[in-house]
Amino acid sequence: MAALIDTIRDAAGPLRHPEKAHRPDQPSLRKPDWIRVKAPVSRGYVETQSIVRENGLHTVCEEAGCPNIGECWEKKHATFMIMGDTCTRACAFCNVKTGLPGALDAAEPVHVAEATAKLGLNHVVVTSVDRDDLEDGGAAHFAAVIGAIRARCPNTTIEVLTPDFLRKNGAADVVVAARPDIFNHNLETVPSKYLTVRPGARYFASIRLLQRVKEIDPAMFTKSGIMVGLGEERNELLQVMDDLRAANVDFLTIGQYLQPSRKHHPVMRFVPPDEFKALEATAYAKGFLMVSSSPLTRSSHHAGEDFARLKALRSAR
């Protein structure tokens, strides 16, 4: 069973989510049998953890409490989270801590590239916290990380999972110019839930970001993900699919929202596997090149294998 730990009550240090500390506890539904993950105890997991620590890096696998960390780290797959471990936003679903981030680490691009080499990654995923405090939202730092990986690991394909760069004009252009192989930005939920789930973001700004990437480089693969179980309606999910297709997004991921703690947004419903399959079939019918839809689907889960399939699917068209 997925272990979701309430980190708000950590008496050993500062509160992880001070902005949520005074919220009333939310109900926590009992997890169904289909939400099961392997405990992170393998040798590969320990070796991956060691490489991450040696290079002073953060991973979204740990910071966001991903339920797939045991499986991915056993295979020495990790998603690097750049620009620190502190986000300038306080989304109701997210386990990454909120606060005022520190200065950017100029050596971080080299450290990410070195860890990529040590892990022997054929495909690497790089994401970040939101950095609304930076003039470009961190776009130039993304570009520097991409450049460092290219220099150290020229055969490794690179996927970026970026923030929305809200009100950061030209940020998408900077990241795309660095030529990642796939550009991912998650919508997370349907528009009607943004004020309660993702209040610092704007739905159509996220759609526009993905659309802009295709305008700059029509050949670049684009990807986005949404969570279900937050109280959305089916017709809203279908509209999100239509909006993403209008922006020419290639790859859609759909996964179950899991509540990090009782201070976070509650799970309104655990969606059964057959409904995920139905959503997958609908998304394919709407024209997505590739769809991954299951309770434990996450944006970076099986990212390398998925990228290989994406390229093959495009070539076959």
Summarize the entry for a quick read.
This protein is of the alpha/beta class and 317 residues long. The chain is built from 11 helices and 10 strands.
Overview of this protein structure:
The protein starts with 42 loop residues before the first helix and ends with a helix. Helix 9 links the parallel strand 8 and strand 9 (251-256). It has helices at 43-54, 60-63, 69-74, 108-119, 139-152, 171-177, 194-197, 203-216, 234-246, 273-285, 303-316; strands spanning 58-59, 79-82, 86-87, 97-98, 123-128, 157-161, 182-184, 221-228, 251-256, 290-293. It has an 8-stranded mixed beta sheet, sandwiched between helices. A two-stranded parallel sheet has the order 3-4. It is 36% helix and 13% strand. The protein is built from 11 helices and 10 strands. It is of the alpha/beta class and 317 residues long. The longest helix has 14 residues, at 139-152.
Whole-angstrom Rg: 18 Å
Overall average pLDDT: 88
How much beta, percentage-wise? Answer: 5-15%
The helix count comes to 11
How are the strands of the largest sheet arranged?
Answer: 1-2-5-6-7-8-9-10
Annotation, overall tally of beta strands:
10
* Global outline: globular
Helix content: 25-40%
N-end to C-end Cα span: 40 Å
Instruction: Supply the helix-strand structural class.
Output: alpha/beta
Low-confidence stretches: 1-13
For the biggest sheet, the summary is: 8 strands, mixed
Q: N-to-C SSE series?
A: HEHHEEEHEHEHEHHEHEHEH
